[in-house]
Amino acid sequence: MNRCWRFVSATFIILGIAILVFLYVERLGKSPFGRILKAMRDAEMAARVYGKDMPKLRVQALITGSAIAAIRGALWAFYVVSMKAVTYNRLVWTFWPWVYVMLGGTGSNLGVLVGALVFLTVRTLTYSYEGALSTIIPTSPSWLEYILVGLAIVLIALFRPQGIILEKPALTLPREKIEKIRKEVGKAINK
Amino acid sequence: MAWINNVLATDPLLSVGILVFTLIVVAVFGALAGYITAYSAIRLREACLGITLLAFSDALQIIV
């Protein structure tokens, strides 16, 4: 009985941690740090004019990203109960995430989520309907997931380079709060 | 192994604590790895930076 519930409970725990990380990244995108990263991406010269240290910001971005990636690797080890550096291969751990990001839409956190969901659903479907697919396509269906990555990258780059979900300008504060601050500032000025 | 599982099964707070502690340690080590990588490669631009990071990950895979 323990064996049956182990993977189910592990899945829900990982899902909970994923939600926490998602909320953290959402908040990070709306913070001053996230805004200056967007400024660095869109107009590096302008951000440098405002006196931001570009190499330092890149180091901070890389540190944040690798910390989140490390949590992901640890949770994967927690899920499969084994850890070998060789199993973290380049296809699954570098190019698949790249496809998720490109498919969902660069520059939006929800887009990455949608991209991962779509890509992994398609991949799992090809995996589970291997027998039915082998009668239709000329090659072995086990190569299909490798073909899928390259095909997805090329098709996205050709037809929809911005991804499924478009990037929206981040609202830093709700409108009511901004109105309240404006009123307070107005009062202070009128005094 | 069995007695470890028994201890963890009877003490849920301890097991959850170990999980959270492990995640924090992992995040710190990941940040450290990111810092070391960034320290050596941060002056490079877009594609060169990507190539260097990929090479770094492959080298680390062979070392570990």
Keywords summarizing the entry:
heterodimer; A: 191 residues; mainly alpha; 2 domains; 9 helices; B: 64 residues; 0% strand; elongated
| Strand tally of chain B | 0
As a percent range, the share of helical residues of chain B equals over 70%
Q: Proportion of β residues of chain B?
A: under 5%
Can you count the beta strands of chain A? Answer: 0
Describe the biggest sheet of chain A? none
Overall geometry of chain B comes to elongated
Number of domains of chain B: 1
N-to-C SSE series of chain A?
HHHHHHHHH
Q: Structural class of the secondary elements of chain A?
A: mainly alpha
Q: Regions of chain A with pLDDT < 50 over 5+ consecutive residues? A: none
Helix content of chain A: over 70%
**Beta-strand level of the residues of chain A, as a percent range?**
under 5%
Order of helices and strands of chain B: HHH
Write up this protein:
The complex is a heterodimer of chains A (191) and B (64). By secondary structure, chain A is mainly alpha-helical. Chain A has helices spanning 2-30, 32-42, 44-49, 54-80, 90-104, 109-128, 130-134, 144-159, 175-190. The longest helix of chain A is centred in the N-terminal third of the chain and has 29 residues, at 2-30. Chain A is elongated and about 80 Å long. Chain B is mainly α and 64 residues long. Chain B has one domain (2-63). Chain B has 3 helices and no strands. Chain B has helices at 2-10, 12-41, 46-63. The two termini of chain B are 25 Å apart. The mean pLDDT of chain B is 83. Classes of the chains: A mainly alpha (191), B mainly alpha (64). At the A-B interface, helix 4 of A face helix 2 and helix 3 of B.
